[in-house]
Amino acid sequence: MTAQRRTTALIGDDNRVVVGGKTLTWRTLHKLPQLPSPAAVLVDNGADALAAVRHHAVHGTELLVATSSRVDLGMREELGESGFAVVIANGDEHSVTPAKLKRVEESGRVWLLTSGSTGRPKRIGHTLESLTTVRGQQQPRTWLVPYSPGTYAWWQVITISLTQADQGLVVIEPSDLETWPMIAAEHGVTAASGTPTFWRQTIYRDTEALAKVPLEQITLGGEPVDQAILDRLKEIFPQARISWIYASSEVGASIVVHDGLAGFPKTWLDRDPQSVSDPESERPILHVDGDELVISSPHHGAGLEGAHRTGDRVEFVEDRVLITGRLDTDEINVGGSKVSAGLVRNVLMAHPAVAWARVFARKAPLVGRMVAAEVVADPDLGPITDADLVQWCTTRLPDYGVPRRIRFLDEIPQKETLKSDV
Amino acid sequence: MSELTRAQIRDLMGEVMKAQGKELPGDDSADLREIGFRSLDFSELALRVEDEIGDELNFDAPGLRQIAKVGDVLDFIEQLQSA
Fold first, then answer.
1. Count of domains in chain B?
2. What is the domain count for chain A?
3. Chain B partners within 8 Å of A335 (Cβ)
4. Residue B34 structural domain
5. Which residues, listed in sequence order, are joined to residue A193 by a DSSP beta bridge?
6. CB pair distance less than 8 Å for B43 and A405
7. What top-level branch of life does the organism fall under (chain B) (predicted)?
8. What is the pLDDT of residues A152-209, one digit of tens each?
C-alpha cells in the first residue's frame, strides 16, 4: 500500500510550481533535510510547506504541516508530548525541537489541524490517499493556492497537483493576497479555489483585475455558499464551471455541487451508497437529524468512520438543502420566533450594493435576542444606508428577521483561513 | 460616554418609529399599541441607546413593570442607563 501511495503521489512531480516568485517543479523544489518522524513542520511560506509535502511523498514520514502562526507555544508543547519533533522550517535553514515522547511512527500518516472555529484546534489523521479526493482524469490546469498551508482546503489543491499530470500550482503568500489576480493572470491560472469571503474580497478590491484571470474552474468552500456570490462569479466568468464543496478535516470533501445553485438537491439525502453507476466510486451518505447535517463519508479522517455530526445547520428551501451556518450560532431566537442568521445574510448579500455581510444576534430587552448585521457596501454601487437595507429586508423576511441594527465596515474582514467567521 | 438625556432618548425613539414609516407623538402619555410601537421597536431602541453610549445596558437590573405608554419607555431606558 505504501509503495502504491508513493508511485501515485509522484505522478505530478514534473508539474509546474510557481512559489516565492520562482517557477519550479515539485522535483526541483528545494529539499528539506531528512525530517524526523513524526515531525510537525511549521512554515512561514508556501515553498517550505510544499517541500515538506514532497518529503513526505517520497519518504512516507509521519507529518503535520502548518503555518507557525497557527501553532502557539502551548500547542508546540502538546505536539512534543505527543511524539512530534517540532521543526521550524525556513528555506535551507531549520531548527528542530526533539519530541518529548518517543513513540513508533505511523508511516504514511498526515495530520491536519482543524480550523479551531469551535474551540482549540484538534489533530485529525489522514493519508495522502484519503486527502486525494479528486481521482478522475482532469483537464490540464494551473491551480491557485491561496489557502494557508496545512488546512484541508490547501491539501485538496496540493494533492491534485501531486498526484495528477498537468496540474500546476501558483502559490499565493499572505502578503500577496490583495494582488493575487495580477499574479494569477501573469502565470495563466485557470482554476482557483477559495472561500466565499475570499471571492467577495477579490471582487470588492478589483473586479477588473479578477476578470483578466483566465479561469475555467472556480471553486468555493469553507463557509456557507450563497446564491449571490455564485451569480456574481458567473457574470464575471460566464464560461467557467463554478462549483462549491462542503469539506472538513473530519469528513473530507463530502458534497460537490456543479449546477451553479446554492445548497444541494434534497434527493441527495439518505441515498443508497451502493446505487451509483460506478461501483468503484464511493459516495458519502448525507442525512439531516433535526436541523443538523450528518455525514458518513469515505473521505473521513482516521477513527472517524460512520455517521459524523457536523455541527452545521441546514434549512430546506424548496427542493434544495441549504447549509446556513454553525448550529450553535446560526439560529437566532427573537422573542420565540426563530430565524437563520445564514438566510438573513443571504438576503442582505443579494442586495446589489452589498459586497459582504455578517449577521449575528444581539442581546436585547423583551425579545431576548435581535438580529444585527455588519455590512461592507460596494463602493461602485453605493451609497446605501441602513434604512435602505432595512427596507430591502422588510420585503423579504418576517419582521423578527429584519436586522434592526446595521453597522457599515470599511473593508471585508478576513482571517488566515480566508474565512470571516460569518 | 455619558448617559443620554431623556430628550436624546426620545429622539432615538423617533428614529425607530421613522424607520418603520411612523411618527412619534409629542405626548408622553400616548399609548404604545395605538402608535404601533412594538416589542421589536423597543428592543431596537435599547440597541440604539447602547450604540450611542458605547456600553451595554443591564436589562436585568430594573424590576419588571408595565410599559404601555411613551413615557414608560423613556423612564425605563433612563433607569437602565443608571443601573
1. 1
2. 1
3. 39-40
4. 6-82
5. A219
6. no
7. Bacteria
8. 999 999 999 999 999 999 999 989 999 999 999 999 999 999 999 999 989 988 999 9
Residue range(s) defining the domain that contains residue A365: 326-408
A115, HSE (Cβ side, Cα atoms, 13 Å): 19
- Residue of B39, B42, B47 lying closest to A362 (CB–CB): B47
Fill in the amino acid letter for A156: Q
State residue A3's pLDDT score. 36
Q: Which CATH number covers residue B19?
A: 1.10.1200.10
For residue B45, CA distances in Å to A261, B40, B50, B58 come to 38, 9, 9, 14
Tally: H helices and E strands in chain B: 4, 0
ipTM for the predicted complex: 0.85
pLDDT of residue B21: 86
Is the pLDDT at A95 greater than 50? The verdict is yes
Question: How many Cβ pairs within 8 Å bridge chains A and B?
Answer: 40
**Which residue type occupies A420?**
S
A264 phi and psi, to 5 degrees? -130, 160
- All residues of chain B having their beta carbon less than 8 Å from the beta carbon of residue A370 are 40, 43-44, 47
pLDDT digits (tens, 9 = 90+) for A100-142: 999 999 999 999 998 765 567 889 999 999 998 887 788 999 9
* A364 found inside a domain: yes
CATH number, residue A398: 3.30.300.30
Mean pLDDT rounded to a whole number for chain A:
90
Q: Provide the β-strand partners of residue A256.
A: A245
B30 and B70 in contact (C-beta within 8 Å)? yes
Q: Report helix, strand or coil for B66.
A: coil
